[in-house]
Here is the input.
Amino acid sequence: MIDRVLDGRALTPDSFDWRFLGLIASILSLGVLSIYSVTSVQTVTGTPIYLKQMAWIAIGCVAFVAMLVVDYHKISRLAYILYALLLVLLVIVLVAGKTSRGAQRWIPIGPFVFQPSEFAKLVLVLTLATYYTRSPRQGWMQRVVLPGLIMLPGLLLILKQPDLGSGLSYLSIYFSMLLVVGMRSKAMGTLLLFAVMLFPFAWELVWGSLHDYQRERIMTFVDPAYDTGGKGYHGLQSRIAIGSGELLGKGLHGGTQSQLKFLPEGHTDFVFAVFAEEWGFLGVLVLLGLFAGLIWLSLEIALKAKDMLGALLAAGLIAMLAFCLVINIGMTAGLFPIVGIPLPLMSYGGSSTVATMAALGLLLNIKRRRLTLFY
Amino acid sequence: MSTRSGTQHDELRELQQRLILFKVSLLMVVGLLALRLWYLQISEGSYYQDLSENNRTRAVALEPVRGLIYDRQGVLLANNVPSFGLYVTLEDVKDRRALIESLVKMVGLDETTVRKKLSERGSRLLPRKVKDGLTLREAALIESHRLDLPGVTVRAESQRNYPHGLTAAHLLGYVGEVSSDQLEKSEYAELHLGSIIGQYGVERTYDRFLRGRAGQKTVEVDAMGHEKRTVEVGKPMAGDDLYLTIDARLQALAEQLLGEESGAIIAVETTTGDVLAMASRPVFDPNVLSRELTAKQWEKIVQDEGHPLTNRATQGQYPPGSTFKIIVAAAGLETGTVNTTTKVRCMGGFPFGGRVYRDWKAGGHGVMDVVDAIVDSCDVFFYTIGQRLGIDTIAEYADRFGLGHETGVELPSERSGIVPSTAWKTRARNEIWLPGETISAAIGQGYTTVTPMQMAMVMASVAGNGETFRPRVVRSIKERATGQVLDLPSVPRPKLALKPETYELLHESLEGVVTRGTAGRARSALVRIAGKTGTAQTAALKDDRRKGEDVPKKLRDHAWFVSYAPAEEPQIAVAVLVENMGHGGSWAAPMAKQMIEAYVKSKPAGPATAAAAPSDELPAAVAMRGLHD
Here is the structure.
């Protein structure tokens, strides 16, 4: 039984990619370090936040190994069931979720809160990859519309929370996979035409559904410096934190922006700003290098995947990670509006950490299997 | 199967080729991010570094501790006590309305006052005081709600305190926050909104010594505006201590003598110009005025009919009444209009210009020479010589005695009174001087007004045979920076050069006033006193000479008694004015006598030097200075 589940392979050290693991471990460590730095000044009752994050990482390791050892083809078989389960969870969130700052995103489980939208991205990748693998992929109906219809309920439920950040990542996964599967130019053209035509309606629909604070964030992106005490506050403080780090940074615990709480959400969405303030441009280059390396290795996995499912899965997972990475750093650096997307592997948050590590486990899984194809 | 597999394999290849696009865009995006971060951290790094410094640090003024004020014997008259002040830094206030609401609820602030304070001009980054004198309980309440009240801080600070309460209130003055208008004056240039300065009395005139120099502390604050740690401190320098010329015991006696009556008592040491006592009633409470007042409290004080904020000694202007006869007599003797043999028959009236100017004594005094006329305060004698002198000569001598001029005592807004003359009337009223007005002026009624301070100096001039010193209220200053005591020298005034015979005659007659004249109630067994009574007519009853108990009190005349002692070797001049007390001899003279007797009795004790200040006062001073160090 166990043998069947594990595909007859033992989990031996040489089956790991040590570079891949090393990169993940490095980024996680820098994340914990930044969380430790920013939260150690806060008076929090109970367990310090950095210890909690380490516990989440431990749970993430379990998820990582679980996603690694089970053949991804077998996981793929569960895709639709998982997707259905996800939709149920998203409905539960709306019905019985925990509300915080105007958004209802969390399901309380005992002392913890669980954020299904973080897992939605992973499940969507799995679902779309499974769909495309099984589908004949003929015509735009099968390539665009059907997967779009599969994706839509999840998207709407996430936007209803509302969770703009997760919604955008979710949507980006769909488009990325669409792109990877490839479309005839006609189909692509039609889609773009539709998109352009529908944009005013979609804008109205989307804008109208946004909460005040989301609209403010987007509006102040247009002119962020006009009121430091008010709406552009988060963005400006984040840029001050990053900019004041200069070349060498202010050192651990030296980040005045984060230590003195000018920077909000220092341990979650703005953890990159904390890191950049304390470690400077050199630290930032190292971190960007680590992330780029991780995604580069992931792309190698996708490029060398033995089959369609593996390649699609890998591409979707890469899209998911890369989107969060770029948008998060971009928003802290003032390139994008602040939409509330965590930095993978660094931001504090149980659901995000576990989901990201599961995704990385799945990526390594694809790599492992490609060597075993012709046993 | 194999076809399917082959197609799939081709498609997989195609798909994987497309992933090359991913690789390229990944490199581009990472490069773009790096470029953006280079721009923020390297290119604009120093700009953001500045913003971050401004964010985290804030300059906080460290208020200096005000100098202490002692009397001439080293009795502490003004010190500082610890107090809690409530401050608000606008920059850190997130919701002003909610803040005002909770402050009103927690410490019972007046809503309009707080709103006004918060909307005043001034830096958003500097904490502004909203209330002082918080109780310990209120301070603790605020501190415990710190996190809910961003921008609010409670500071321990020093509060001006006058341990003797109302004693010498007008002389000491009071302190208060510098106003926006005051800040624009150069003398207050180094201060900021919320600085405490002297607003009245010595506190005001010697403010530049008393206030010290503010220090500055650079503190690191968090996003809520709460201080986290101190980065840099420039220590404040406490103000210099003052040693006044007044003697607290004489001062207390003067105030006790006035009691509930309105008026002023001044005692000046003729050999130095030292003001030994300066009492004015009614009085304000400097301890109340030095704290935060509501608009209502302030209004009540300002609109009080008794004008408690007026220092009647230097700001009260009254007709001199018969005390002015000293000057008219001197003018007569000096000009030769009168000599010792000049006689005037007083029949109780002086007919002039179709009417009769009455003497205060209905039947008249009979034949009078100048000495008798002063002793008995004969009006007819002075009507006669006043008419002979003419108003301009009278005015000239009044001017030489210092009337119409400020005495120069270092107290704010001293008044100079009025010395009428033909030129004055043309200038001030654009009217011609009427001859009848000279008659009134000769006995100190009419337009002439003087302050009690001026009359004390007139007596000092007579006592010193023309040699006087500018009246002063501060003897020495103990410099904080060096610890040295700076004794201020007495400043001689220009000598009033009258003939020695004139002075001799004045001495003789003024002593006669006490020994055999109108001021019998000033006669003392202890000391020979010379003086002159006066009755200053209030405008309402100018021509009605029959004043007694049936006249409503506020319409009664003011009582004057001006004096010096000992007659043989004068050391002290005392001026007493009691409003609405009728004749000077009955009420004012005994007060002056008590002042002089108290002075003579305590005389052996020389003025204390600053170093000899009672040692028990010093630890308190040191403790207060330690508050901000």
Q: What stands out?
A: The CA atoms of residues 19 and 25 of chain B lie 10 Å apart. Confidence is low (pLDDT under 50) at residues 540-547, 605-629 of chain B. Chain B has 23 helices and 21 strands. Chain B touches chain A at residues 8, 11-12, 14-16, 18-23, 26-27, 29-30, 33-34, 36-38, 40-42, 44-49, 51-52, 55-56, 91, 220-224, 228 (CB under 8 Å).
